[in-house]
Amino acid sequence: MNSKKLILIGLGLFLTNLISAQYNNLWIPDTLSGKSFNLVIKDTFSQIVKGQQTITAGINGKFWGPTLIIQKHDTVRMNVLNKLNDTTTLHWHGMHLPAVMDGGPYQLIPPNTTWRPYWKMKNQAGTYWFHPHLHEMTMDQITKGIGGLIIVRDSAEAALKLPRKYGIDDIPLVLSDRSFTTANQFKSVPYGDSAMTNGVLRAQFSLPAQMVRFRILNAAIERSFNIGFSDNRDFYVIGSDGGLLSTPTTLKRFLLSAGERVEILVNLTGMTAGQILDFKAFNSTLANNIPGGENFPNGPFASAIGKKDFNLLHINIINALSANEIKTVPTTLVSNIYPKAADAKVTRYLSMNDSTGLTGILGPNAFIINHKLFKYGFNNYTVPLNNTEIWQIKSTSGFAHPFHIHDVEFNILTINGVAPPAEQAGWKDVILVKPNTTVRFIAKFDDFADANHPFMYHCHISLHEDEGMMGQFLVTDNQSEIQKTPTGTVSIFPNPANDRLYLSANFNWNEVYYVKITKPNGATVMMLPQPEEGKAIDITNLKTGLYFLSVIQKGFSQPIVVKFVKE
Ligand SMILES: [Cu+2]
Fold first, then answer.
1. What is the ipTM of this complex?
2. Are residues 468 and 497 in the same domain?
3. N or C: which terminus of the chain carries fewer CB neighbours within 10 A?
4. How much distance in Å is there from the Cα of 193 to the middle of ligand 1?
């Protein structure tokens, strides 16, 4: 071989490395499976850009958190320890559960406190997530990276020929965007200058030449992503927020808004190893009033990728894993039974508005719902337990807002009077309501929520939510007012205690709504929503000393307080 040829080969290798150096390998979050999950939220550092590390927050890690894999019908127990310096909350987005377990803005977890919610998984197989929901701090805490995915599995999904090898042909893709200071730190802004996939800038990943499944979450603060592929190939939507559709639907573009999830199949069969493909956001075609479609040259809503097309994942094709991998899209998926409009007991009329003149914490430009800013302690609706209801969301705002409601998965009846497109006709918990648009959806409300722990509905653009574009509702079979002073008594044994604590009450245990353990200085160390009767409270991790244990009875605002000593 002559030297000229060697130089050319060397140059070729150099260029290849240079090209791949543009990209960073996609990070796939670890999985946790089972019925009990330990989640530690903490401040940390992460190497996101070259040079100085970025101050981040993560769950059991440096940025974002593990993917929880949960079987339908299992009772799951969460041990959430807040090691941040600030109070936070952890909301189980899309989960059908009692409000006291929901992790909304009323279920505060102070620093160094363990919160132990539990619930029976009623959701069907699908992609859900969890994230902080501390009012006025949601945007900051999500920006730092706190969150994680939940994959629910069930027998109906397991019976289908779908890719489900996590991280191999079933790929979690968490889309967001960030801006950095010159010192590589996150800016808490509605729009970032760089797209981020699973916490990675300019992500690349190798995918086999076969049918591949993407579970895509929009975890951005404000931006929507108009997803598609660089060669404009078809993809197949198989699932929306609350589970699989009845049948797949073929698309080239899908507009995914903040908080929303979509599951798609992309058929890479027939491609050859070494080929490349880009998964992109085609945001240049978005209207100015769609999040991400603005093209401000400067100001708080300007960003380098506003109204532009940009990459979300650079895909390097590798050989199919075997000759008998899935190559076709199923013709049908699951049979979904939605509530019927005729079963609705009431229609509630909500509107999303521009609040010219109303001043929120972030200034006078807040968007609002029903012409009111969110106010702690103010209840907007009381839904009778087990009611089927139609909610109509009418936008008078000049900007599109992704409407999200807690507790239920809903089914869209109409958008501006006509049936929704197939990809939005399944179970949903977020819907982008565009200007001059009216969305009607139906849902059944069968989880309890009282004024101590209400459910929320809000715009899922965290900035708008923090500004007060939110409301709350109760779900109750008992319309009576919350009373102040409880009459019951609670006893603790053993006392002093070493590792396990048992409680008994002189009233029906089902009335126990909340148990909280605090130190004499008032600092909370443990929060136990609706602890089960006869089940020991594990206090192994408490330091020795005196503690106060408060029991809140359903329907009362003041707790019953008893003391105990940890030996
Ligand atoms: Cu909004």
1. 0.83
2. no
3. N
4. 20
